[in-house]
Structure formats: structure tokens, C-alpha cells
Amino acid sequence: MKRLLRIVNVLAILLLAPLVVLLRAEPPGRYTVGTPTDPGGSGKFYMGREISLVMGHQGAGWLERPEREKEEQPKKLLQMLSIKPGMVVADIGAGSGYYSFRLAEKVGAKGKVLAVDIQKEMLDIIRQRMKKNKVENIEPILGTDADPKLPASSVDLVLLVDVYHEFAFPYEMTEALIKALKPGGRMVFVEFRREDEKVPILLAHKMTEKQVLAEMAPHPLQHVKTIESLPWQHVIIFEKKTNKTENKPARSASQRGPSLVGAVGR
Q1: Which of 61, 109, 149, 223 is most buried, taking the most CB atoms under 10 A from its CB?
Q2: What are the Cα distances from residue 41, in Å, to 57, 123, 183, 191?
């Protein structure tokens, strides 16, 4: 219980509330604004879900905590993604580069990691680490709350680790990310399971699989499968639709889990 309270309290302290951004002019009816329902919530809602507040750059140290190895098992996650040398991977909400540098090792010298964040301070941390460790295949990119600033049809894999729920404009960001994907490229959501009350994360920072599927339904994405073998998180995998994938069914629930790990932030 003490550990759970510590995690919740740390998250609550580190969250920022960019309310001016959240309340700016936007398409009528797509978003609604009301009273926050959760300590980590912004009071802005999309498809019935309260958008969370954004973790500020002051929390960079927390993103690098040693406990993540046990809580999130990043090595296992990267195995699921079947990343090959030469691939271009976009790490959205890259933060301090926790996943960016791990991805850089996977794609190799001929590949590239596009580390996207909306906070310059986070990208400065990544640049410092790149210089210190002589890493040359990461490109830090300063995006906006509605545009990741990625070239069209340039990315093999978009990875969103514990970040989609923070998007102030999730519809617009998803549109832009899909445009950046190559035909048949994959978009992978890694989100804390809201279905599991034992996961010690603020509710606004958790998502159900059902909610992710509903929010992706308006977009040209095909749900490939969902993997539930990480301790606290879903791994929900989509593919950019092409003529060949328009009517391709997703894997059934009975096919999800550890047996699929070989088949397939922050």
C-alpha cells in the first residue's frame, strides 16, 4: 500500500496542466470540457474519456527509475515489436529517451529513431545523452500538441508508450501519425490497464483496450492483436490499412498473450 501511494503521489506532483492549450479553439462537438474527475485529469474529454494532464520535464528522473525494468519489462516489450536493422521508428512522447536509446540499438546504424516530444527540455536531455554516449541514429523532433512534425510515409513503426492518454488533441495527433506511417506500417499503443485496479497508476493515466479500439475506429487502421503478457500494460497493435488489409480480421482473444510475443515512448 505504501508503494502504491508513493507512485500515485509522485505522479500527481509531476503533472502539469496546460489549460490554455486544452481549451483553445477546436472542432465543435469533438471535445467537451467539464470538471476534472480524477487527480490526474484535465477536465477535457474525448469519446467519454478524460484526457490526462501531461507529465512535465521535471519528472525526467522518474522516467529513468530502475523499477521500470520490473514494472514494465522493456526488454520483453521490444522483443514483441520485432524491430529490424534499418527500420525507422518514431518514439512519440520520447521524454528522457528511455525507449529511444533502446530502440536505437535495435535499428542499428542504418536505421533511425525519431524521438518526438512537445517539451524542448526533454529533447535537450536526449541530445545531452546522445553526445555523451556518441549515439548518432536518433533525431530529436519538437512536435506540437496536434502535430508530431514527421515526414509523410516515412515511418515503419510508431511507438506510443504511456503517452496517448495525455494527447490534448488525440484525433488530430492520430491523423498526423497515420500520415507519417508507410503503407502497412504499425502503430503500437502501450497503456496501463484500466481494467486492473491493482495497477498503481492514476485513473486518467490508464486506458482500457475497449477505449483504445473505439478511439482508433474512425481512422484507417487495422487492429492486428493485443498482447497482455506485460505486468501492468496492454500492448495494442494496429497496422495502417492498405487494400490488402481492409478486411483482415484481428487476432481473437484466445490468440492473445505470451505465445504471440515473437510475432509482432517513454
Answers
A1: 223
A2: 18, 25, 35, 16
